[in-house]
């Protein structure tokens, strides 16, 4: 690799963030969410560190993601949060002993047709008010009645998802928790009691949502689920440091235009650096003009439009030459949360945007 682009992934930060989960939810088991390629951080790098740090299981979104994780041989249960997406996935999942989440009647029919005589471990997802996935509470009696016909199926527990844990004071969190508690009271005896509700926001701020399993995702990568607060402000360490370098410099005179669309005109003599990074790498084009960036350890700003492979930065007040290191986002640079807020989006989206052509490298 000669292009000066890398996303560094900190093993120390991953381990620290797992310890924060343990501190916040000391009586729960940790099911680490590593879906979407570990939220863009590279599951093949992150999952082994998370296993070594003591997480108890992993959560993914699909069978394909489960297979990638299985190949790492980390000896931890793998839970497919979306359950089977097609009938033929059922036996494949059973052969690997993946934990399946079922959330609709069609999936139950697939299990009955293709795995009636197969040992399965299941979670039953209940819709507690998010109205995305899950059986309505008044359907659970029928679901459990059907499950009882298959003695080789073990229902580990109920599962649901919090819709507003990013706003912990919202009463909707308590409403969802109450619906979940009522379902647990009714069906706990039909399960192994391994219920799960809390995501990162729940782990950090809603202890009444901590049950046998917590499912942290974003916080494992050092990012905050709460608007207006960075991960570092709540005791987390950023795992990602997305880095590049200055590959050219330009001296502009007053009136010179810069970049695609000639959207920025120099008001005075200035010095510009060209950085090897662009929207083709996943750096958002709409961050653009004025976005914070760090060059040679100094605060700088982006000028003009972000192009596919390059962006321009103001070096007028920055001591930096060609090959000077640049931090696009993350540790050592602008916090992912800050850039997400600038775009009017969430940290999840920014980290997941980083493209496969950006090499990831595990650092201590």
Automatic annotation (TrEMBL):
Q: Where is the Alanine racemase C-terminal domain?
A: 239-363
- Please list the residues that make up the active site: 35, 260
Pathway(s) this gene product operates in, as recorded in its UniProt entry: Amino-acid biosynthesis; D-alanine biosynthesis; D-alanine from L-alanine: step 1/1
PTM sites of type N6-(pyridoxal phosphate)lysine: 35
Q: Does the keyword Transcription regulation apply?
A: no
Question: What are the recorded Gene Ontology BP terms?
Answer: D-alanine biosynthetic process
Tell me if Isomerase is a UniProt keyword of this record: yes
Alphabetically, the GO molecular function entries are:
alanine racemase activity; pyridoxal phosphate binding
Q: Which UniProt keywords apply?
A: Isomerase, Pyridoxal phosphate
Top-level lineage group: Bacteria
List positions binding substrate: 132, 308
Q: Which family does the record assign?
A: Belongs to the alanine racemase family.
Protein name as annotated: Alanine racemase
From what organism does this protein derive? Answer: Acidithiobacillus ferrianus
Show the taxonomic lineage.
Bacteria, Pseudomonadati, Pseudomonadota, Acidithiobacillia, Acidithiobacillales
């Amino acid at each position: 690799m000669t292009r000066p682009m890398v996303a560094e992934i900190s093993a120390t930060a991953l381990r620290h963030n797992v310890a924060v989960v343990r501190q916040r939810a000391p009586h729960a088991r940790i099911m680490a969410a590593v879906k979407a390629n570990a939220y863009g951080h590279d599951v093949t790098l992150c999952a082994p560190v998370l296993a070594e740090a003591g997480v108890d299981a992993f959560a993914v979104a699909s069978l394909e993601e489960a297979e990638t994780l299985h190949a790492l041989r980390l000896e931890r249960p793998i839970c497919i949060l979306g359950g089977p997406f097609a009938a033929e996935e059922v036996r494949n999942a059973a052969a690997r002993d993946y934990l399946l989440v079922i959330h609709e009647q069609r999936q139950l029919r697939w299990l009955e047709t293709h795995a009636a005589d197969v040992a399965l471990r299941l979670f039953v997802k209940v819709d507690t008010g998010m109205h995305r996935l899950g059986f309505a509470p008044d359907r659970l009696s029928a679901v459990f009645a059907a499950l009882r016909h298959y003695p080789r199926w073990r229902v580990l527990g109920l599962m649901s998802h919090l819709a507003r844990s990013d706003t912990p004071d919202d009463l909707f969190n308590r409403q969802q928790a109450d619906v979940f508690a009522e379902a647990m009271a009714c069906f706990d005896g039909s399960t192994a009691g391994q219920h799960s509700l809390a995501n990162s926001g729940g782990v950090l701020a809603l202890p009444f949502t901590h049950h046998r399993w917590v499912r942290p995702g974003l916080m494992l990568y050092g990012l905050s689920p709460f608007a207006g607060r960075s991960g570092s402000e709540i005791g987390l360490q950023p795992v990602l440091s997305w880095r590049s370098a200055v590959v050219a410099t330009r001296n502009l005179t007053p009136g010179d235009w810069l970049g695609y669309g000639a959207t920025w005109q120099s008001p005075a003599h200035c010095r510009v650096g060209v950085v090897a990074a662009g929207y083709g790498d996943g750096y958002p084009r709409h961050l653009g003009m004025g976005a914070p960036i760090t060059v040679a350890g100094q605060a700088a700003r982006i000028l003009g439009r972000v192009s596919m492979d390059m962006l321009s930065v103001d070096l007028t007040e920055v001591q930096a030459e060609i090959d000077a290191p640049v931090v696009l986002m993350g540790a050592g640079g602008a916090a992912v949360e800050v850039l997400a807020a600038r775009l009017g989006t969430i940290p999840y989206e920014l980290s997941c945007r980083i493209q496969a052509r950006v090499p990831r490298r595990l650092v201590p």
